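One example copied in:
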Amino acid sequence: MAKKRGNSEGSIYRMQDGRWRAAVMIGWKVAPDGKRTQERRVFTGATRHEVANQLTDALKDLKLGLLVAPRKQTLGQFLTWWLDEVVKATARPKTMEFYEYISRVHLIDGLGEIHVQRLTSQQIQVFLNQRLAKKSGRTKRSVSARTVRHIRRTLCTALNCAVKYKVIPLNVALATDPPTAARAAVQYMSVEQARTFLEMARSDRLYALYATVLALGLRLGEGLGIAWDDIDLDTGRFNIQQALQRIDKKLYPEKGGLQLVEPKGGYSARVVTLPAVAISALRHHQALQAEEQRWAGNRWKNEWGLAFTGKLGKPLDERNVLRRFQKILALAELPKMRIHDLRHSAVAILIAQGVNIKAISELLGHSSVAFTLQVYGHLLEETKRETADKMDSALSPVATTVATNPSKIRAN
């Protein structure tokens, strides 16, 4: 008499319609009332050989400790779970917004109906190629190579989580090839343009914000998040430990709107020294804000003690600051740029002044000097060229004499 198979050994049988079915128990489901029922993984195919191979693979997964999840879970369902239960609980709000957008607009739209365990590297590669060549998606519009790289990176991150939670045995997205994307050109002001900008901005109510962001290479959110308690105008010490950020109310109903968050990245919280131009501007602004507070009276609402607020003490919205910034650029007849380009301008000016790249990296709050070089390395190359040209200029009379009178060169 044949020995009966155990619960986790699987079984194969033929159904009445002639097809074959294999089944294996993968665990127990516990109902709210405490009742336990078996959870099984079932495979159906035209031949016994087909389902036997599927059963063998499932048994291997069980032996490795991998969860053999039902194949009914689609990639779209998994991405929704990942965003709600993992990303939302562990990542910064802006990161959550980014992943949610990429997942909703691209991944769920293009791959969402595919069962997560049946997703292949080939399917992902075709999908990425189609996004680049405007052959898929609701809008039928192409996206940039940089966006396609973001799509792939988001999918890789999500599937890494699926591997961690033993939903799939390996991350098939890692085997795909991202398109080559040229790094976006960094736009920045020259020293002369920076002086022109600050001179034109001097009469603006937010002059101190522009001067501080430019002088320290701050992100705008870091500038808007400056609290007077974080600054010592006597010593010039500035403790950068927060940033102002607008959080999507749809994703975070309980804390949507303008909120103070930790600076971007694990190394962005830092202590820096304020240059004199920023100290002077901040002292003037502090006096201006005190006048505005007296004028507002009990309407003043600056609960976080921020340095830069509206005239009634409320936090400033980035969009409003950007509009004022663009007006100043136009009045100064400077090229149109983002306010984040003030950060790039600070780096360009410091490099031109010969400041060490490690000091610049620490000022910016970058995770490593290597990352700073990756972003701004081309500015260093330009400086090297300028240095060589200056040396040429300084030595050109000597070089010309040597070239025209080789007999004057003495042997050592």
About this structure: The mean pLDDT is 86. The chain has three domains: 11-63, 75-175, 195-332. The CA atoms of residues 25 and 40 lie 4 Å apart. Residues 369-404 form the longest helix (36 residues).
